[in-house]
Amino acid sequence: MSAGQRQGEHAASPTHVAIIMDGNGRWAQMRGLPRQEGHRRGLESLRRAVKNAGELGIEILTLYSFSTENWRRPHAEVSFLMGLLKHFVEKDLAELNASGVRVRIIGGRDDLAPELRGLVEHAETVTRDNTKMTLVVAFNYGSRDEIVRAARRLAADAAAGRIDAAAIDETAFVARLDTHDLPDPELVIRTSGETRISNFLLWQAAYAEFVFTPVLWPDFDRAALEEALAEYARRERRFGGLSEPANRKAGAA
Ligand code: FPP
């Protein structure tokens, strides 16, 4: 638990917001358009979300852009999504950098084409000292995969004598997750009316608030983001403890 997450404390606005951007396909289908058009509009929505989040004071925005399960989609759609990430980095990197956005990619890199991998690593290097906002793109990301990779690193470190197995604790584990340099998200938003976590930030979202909105991702605008933030501000976060009046009562008893 970080300093900002003590029992009973309640910050009105989250530092780190993570979004499961769902509904591109349905958005297109409803208009008789190909799914790819939904993803294209999804990328426009992503750009808008980064801008709005920055303006609303969100310091870290994590976007679930391609999951480890998305490889099961038709080859053409997978290729299109790979191409969209490439297009995004090539076209937007200069502007993101000029706006002070630090770009981080989480997810397995070994399965990415060398060119794409090089491109995202370049984006991370170029922007690493930016401080205005952090954009985390979860690409080829799945929490179970991330946790297994972290466990593999721990096992390798233990086998090499770099860590004593008995000394493995949450801190040692967290240090080996893809998100090792990021605080946990306080708010996770999922669009399109689905109410699942879909293998997203399972470890990191242990104490997050969840907001589910029926809005399809291409339609997710500033008003929808502000509504999710307002919903978050109404929630009471207890981290397994008691609410403040109940705490006082327990203390008095
Ligand atoms: C879910 O919609 C969305 C995705 C699987 C991909 C998200 C991609 C974007 C928002 C575009 C930007 C992409 C990159 C790579 C920067 P869905 O296709 O599952 O929608 P459906 O459930 O309505 O079919």
UniProtKB/TrEMBL annotation:
Top-tier EC class: transferase
Active-site residues, record numbering mapped to chain: D22, N70 (proton acceptor)
Provenance organism: Bosea lathyri
Manner of cofactor binding, per the entry note: Binds 2 magnesium ions per subunit.
Keyword Transferase listed: yes
Residues annotated to bind Mg(2+): D22, E209
Any matching Pfam family: Prenyltransf
Entry-linked InterPro entries: UPP_synth-like, UPP_synth-like_CS, UPP_synth-like_sf
GO cellular component, one term: cytosol
Purpose of the protein: Catalyzes the condensation of isopentenyl diphosphate (IPP) with allylic pyrophosphates generating different type of terpenoids.
Annotated keywords: Magnesium, Metal-binding, Transferase
Catalytic activity, EC: 2.5.1.-
GO terms (BP aspect): polyprenol biosynthetic process
Family: Belongs to the UPP synthase family.
GO molecular function terms noted in the UniProt entry: ditrans,polycis-undecaprenyl-diphosphate synthase [(2E,6E)-farnesyl-diphosphate specific] activity; magnesium ion binding
Cofactor(s) of this protein: Mg(2+)
Entry binding sites for substrate: 23-27, 35, 39, 67-69, 71, 73, 190, 196-198
Subunit structure: Homodimer.
Protein name, UniProt field: Isoprenyl transferase
UniProt keyword annotation of Transferase present: yes
